[in-house]
Amino acid sequence: MSTPLPPPYDRTAPNALGAEVRHDEKARFDFLANLNVHLGSKLFPGTKTAFEKRVAPAFKKTKGRDLANRVEVRDAMKGDPVYQFWAALRRNTMEMRQQAGRSVVYRQFDKLTERARALNDAKPTLKLDPTTKIPRYLAAVDNHCMPGSYYTEIAPDDISGPANYDIGIFVTGAGASSARGDSGGRAIVKFVRESFPDFKPKRIMDLGAGIGTNTLPIAEAFPDAEVVAVDVAAAMLRYGHARAQAMGFNKVQFIQAALEDLDFAPGSFDWIQTTMFWHETSMPTLMSGLKRVYELLAPGGMSLNVEQPNFTATTTLWDQFTKDWDAWYNNEPFWSKLHTLDYPKLMAASGFAKDKLFDGYANSDVEPGFYPDWAKVYDRHGPEKSVEKAQKRGWYLFGGWK
Ligand SMILES: C[S@@+](CC[C@H](N)C(=O)[O-])C[C@H]1O[C@@H](n2cnc3c(N)ncnc32)[C@H](O)[C@@H]1O
Known about the structure:
binds S-adenosylmethionine; 402 residues
């Protein structure tokens, strides 16, 4: 089988704030996206062979029994040279991606800050609240190796972290992120349109919206709806709001608030979306947060969550170990516990009726014309998750109606 290749960085949409990405910088991003593909499709399968042929048999020989859980698998794999090679490189692609993006942004720090300031100036659609508290679980680590995580600011009106986040989405997704990095939001829109064609939400909240990458496709698909992007991090909203304005989305509101302190009346929203949000929170926040989401929905409203799928009874120890990897080596502390949960049970415990719950997979959707003929949509984590392979490729989602 030939290896799928990511499209060239050149095919991504120009940065909305006008950040210049030079030839050598694009080449660096292309190298990293391709290295990610190579790691996933060529090196990673070798780690499974090492597990089956070397590590698991050696464990059995020494202990007189099979490996019993994913933590034992991790401990046993740590000493294997093929695994060490893959794991070190995978961690490194993440670190290199961050540094590559930062150098692009820092080179034009003042220009980008000024551009965002001009786009944000006196706009009622951006509401920042300097009293917002960064939750402890978010402040504890630099999420997925992002220096300073989402919220750190190093200068007045700083947008450098989010600008880096935006410019490098291409690498993080190994080129499968579509021209504007919004393949998730596009997939959500397609799923909602196909699954619930009569759904006409008037008020939509995207909770943990970040820079609004995946909010804007929703706003575009439901132009009559009021769309509110909520996030705890001021820098993300500052950049996201400026980006939205530059792209012509001047009605989308960007509001700073922690989920824990959301100040909206019960029943305010017809749709509350979360995309890759819950895994960056904590167990108490997930439990109280789902209840809050239920409360904030109007009768007939929908909660839709794109998230990591949970382990099932048939998820092998190997799959559990590989899916857990980011918890240990990519600064995603809640990732491991999250996989063991049962979303329908949590939704039901939060107020949702069991017969109004749903889950499934939304196929990734990339902008037409983004990929040259020879490029393929590459799922960065595809080779690492045989559990969801084949028909289940795409974005896992769960939700419920009120
Ligand atoms: C992985 S990002 C996802 C961003 C966006 N949904 C997307 O699809 O691109 C998670 C976001 O959740 C935000 N966040 C984390 N905890 C939060 C909380 N308690 N309340 C509001 N936002 C939070 C972070 O600041 C970050 O921007």
